[in-house]
Amino acid sequence: MRTSSGHLARSALLAVTIISLLGAPAHADGEAKLLAPTGTLRVGIYPGSPTSMVTDAAGTSHGLAYDLGGKLAKRLGVPIDYVRFQRVADIVTAIHDGQVDFTVTNATPARANEVSFSQPVLAIELGFLVPANSPIGKVEDIDKPGVKIGVTKGSTSERTLPAKFKNATIVAAESVKVAIAMFGRGEIDLYATNKPTLFEFSDQMPGAKILDGNWGAEHMAIAIPKGREEALPLLNRFVTDEQSSGALDTIQQQAGLRGATKATRQ
């Protein structure tokens, strides 16, 4: 009887051990399958903005979407695939279509119809950039006939600014890189987008100036495909951890992200 009881006890202990060993990985594995169903976290990025991806002088990539995507992939224990696009609107479409798993972008009501968002990561001021020797010195100088405001096609700026400026003309550029060339050809007089992108922009344009003040704010959050809302508690914990640990501050510094403020819940 002692042998039988001992055998049962050892079997029970072994079963408990196996369950406990399998339990945590199974939970983590379930989150990985939900957020990265292909086995790889596909992160949507577009070059030229610190909120997405920029490359430093040493050729190293940084950025809010780029680095947070890398950290989440590590947390999930899956490889990462950075998928490049020309502009953020294309990334949102790709997430909606299930071709991309993750990005960080402005959580607008319109985009919330297409994708699901985490809690805000950080807030970013929206502003205007003018080239050297521009006659436009303040926001009040903008809304005049003949003034051409450049925006990125499919952006928040393109949707929002026509209601704010009735006399100026809104001109859509295919990308930030294209917009730089448009300044040189006189096709736009100023450019409107978030300030981190404008600062990055101004570094490539000697004498360029970002006008004082702002015309709103973007509330940057993680975007994932609809139908994966079960993963939002994990993503919200991830965001809180990155904020409280100081990791988010480091990401902003490495990406040269200027013009950001602390996130507030919407």
Q: What integer is the average pLDDT?
A: 87
Low-confidence stretches: 1-5, 11-27
The Rg value, from CA coordinates, equals 23 Å
Q: β content, as a range? A: 15-25%
Distance between the termini: 65 Å
Helix and strand composition category: alpha/beta
- Could you say what the CATH topology of the largest domain is called? D-Maltodextrin-Binding Protein, domain 2
Full CATH superfamily name of the largest domain: Periplasmic binding protein-like II
Tell me what the CATH architecture of the largest domain is. Answer: 3-Layer(aba) Sandwich
Largest sheet: 8 strands, mixed
Overall body shape: elongated
Count of DSSP helices?
A: 9
Describe this entry's structure for a reader.
By secondary structure, the protein is α/β, with parallel strands linked by helices. It has two domains: 136 residues, D-Maltodextrin-Binding Protein, domain 2 (3-Layer(aba) Sandwich), CATH 3.40.190.10; 85 residues, Periplasmic binding protein-like II (D-Maltodextrin-Binding Protein, domain 2, 3-Layer(aba) Sandwich). It is built from nine helices and twelve strands. The strands form three sheets. Strands 5, 6, 7, 8, 9, 10, 11 and 12 form an eight-stranded mixed β-sheet that branches. A two-stranded parallel sheet has the order 1-4. α5 links the parallel β7 and β8. It starts with a helix and ends in a 5-residue tail after the last strand.
